[in-house]
Amino acid sequence: MTDNNSPPGSPQVNPDHTSEANPLPKDDSSLENIVRRFQDSMSLAKKHKFWETQPVGQFKDVGDTSLPEGPIEPPTPLSEVKQEPYNLPSPYEWTTCDMDSEETCNEVYNLLKNNYVEDDENMFRFNYSKEFLRWALRPPGYYKSWHIGVRAKTSKKLVAFITGVPARIRVRDEVVKMAEINFLCVHKKLRSKRLAPVMIKEVTRRVHLENIWQAAYTAGVVLPTPITTCQYWHRSLNPKKLIDVGFSRLGPRMTMSRTIKLYKLPDQPATPGFRKMELRDVPAVTRLLRNYLSQFVVSPDFDENDVEHWLLPTEDVIDSYLVESPKTHDITDFCSFYTLPSSILGNQNYSILKAAYSYYNVSTKTPLLQLMNDALIVAKKKDFDVFNALDVMHNESFLKELKFGPGDGQLHYYLYNYRIQNALRTSELGLVLL
Ligand SMILES: CCCCCCCCCCCCCC(=O)SCCNC(=O)CCNC(=O)[C@H](O)C(C)(C)COP(=O)(O)OP(=O)(O)OC[C@H]1O[C@@H](n2cnc3c(N)ncnc32)[C@H](O)[C@@H]1OP(=O)(O)O
């Protein structure tokens, strides 16, 4: 995937019977990968008229160790932050999207449903639910003014969107107040008109007005300059449907029934004390998670309010499970995944792919492999078709063994106005954005 945020779907090669139980790693010399590497190197050579003007790591500075880590530019005095919005082309006007309003939430939902991230082959498009959008956009301390829309002046139709939410992100020993920027979307008919840079400048201005000077974001495109580049992995839960809709292919010398058998999971989780997280677990989960995340170079700095918001289960949005020791009642392990369906474009039989995305997982007593197998089991019971995970944190330790296959989706992570000297290994990253 080269031109979007992350993969609504990415075909994977299924294993054949000679390759034990593991999906074949995608051949790195495949045409797809060669093309991607070529495009990425073109992007490095490419002029970025907008991004070259921004306080982000520039390609020319990669490897220059004389540049210090930390903010690239100091904050400007608040009185010098522009008070009026940036100018849009005259047919358009700014709107602040009130996500509490059913009507506005519907408009945002429909804009994204029809115009947001697709895979390279345009077979799938993210279909974030309204409940999900409300969850993603209203964490503790959120600012309504950071939910920014663009409307056509005459019809009042919503044609573009960008959002920020506040977060404390730790980079090494520093906890930095940041905005997490997401849901940048321009209607398909208005692409390539340089609307995106204006929207990014406007969200930046509104973030600055709250005295916040850094941001974190992810994208499927290469921009100056990723702090790391992750890969998506996919674990089939409903292989027949995934093959029918073109998400995955039947491996060489594999039959459908063999494939179904390969991905079959037990009916119940194996770990004694594995149960859904509840409100009363928030303090213990916060301690567990804070302690676990402290080992990564970049991670969120979650307090109890954040944990309650981001991790307490919400139907069809976020699922969290933990292991409570049957003897001591200590909370020793935790796993979570969020629900992000994709529309299946132009298929006669299916319109929705139900995907679970691995979020934060912590193991202290239960081996991570067993914990994640239990997560797969509950996801399957909840009728998800596929379980996706990035190769961040300790995920690499279970991906192959639990029959995840590498996808073609790459996800680049970025910080705005914060320099990191060397790109991180994906296992040094403790941050998952939605
Ligand atoms: C302190 C606070 C700071 C806050 C801000 C922090 C930064 C936040 C940054 C945003 C984080 C967003 C996180 C997410 O939501 S990532 C999800 C992005 N959305 C999609 O992929 C949905 C489908 N695509 C679209 O809606 C459009 O293609 C978008 C809107 C993406 C671009 O519209 P369009 O195709 O009509 O292009 P243009 O003519 O207006 O503009 C072209 C310029 O835009 C640069 N471009 C293209 N794609 C992206 C991208 N994904 N991130 C950053 N920049 C991007 C591009 O390199 C070029 O600049 P330069 O190469 O010439 O320099």
UniProtKB/TrEMBL annotation:
PROSITE patterns in the record: NMT_1, NMT_2
Ranges for region Disordered: 1-31, 58-85
Root EC class: transferase
Entry-linked InterPro entries: Acyl_CoA_acyltransferase, NMT, NMT_C, NMT_CS, NMT_N
GO BP term (any one): protein localization to membrane
Xref: Pfam families: NMT, NMT_C
Compositional bias annotation for Polar residues: 1-16
Catalytic reaction equation(s): N-terminal glycyl-[protein] + tetradecanoyl-CoA = N-tetradecanoylglycyl-[protein] + CoA + H(+)
Acyltransferase listed as a keyword: yes
Keyword Methyltransferase annotated: no
Spans traversing the lipid bilayer: none
EC number: 2.3.1.97
Family that this chain belongs to: Belongs to the NMT family.
PANTHER family: GLYCYLPEPTIDE N-TETRADECANOYLTRANSFERASE 1-RELATED, N-MYRISTOYL TRANSFERASE
Functional description taken from the UniProt entry: Adds a myristoyl group to the N-terminal glycine residue of certain cellular proteins.
Protein name: Glycylpeptide N-tetradecanoyltransferase
This protein's encoding gene: LOC107901100
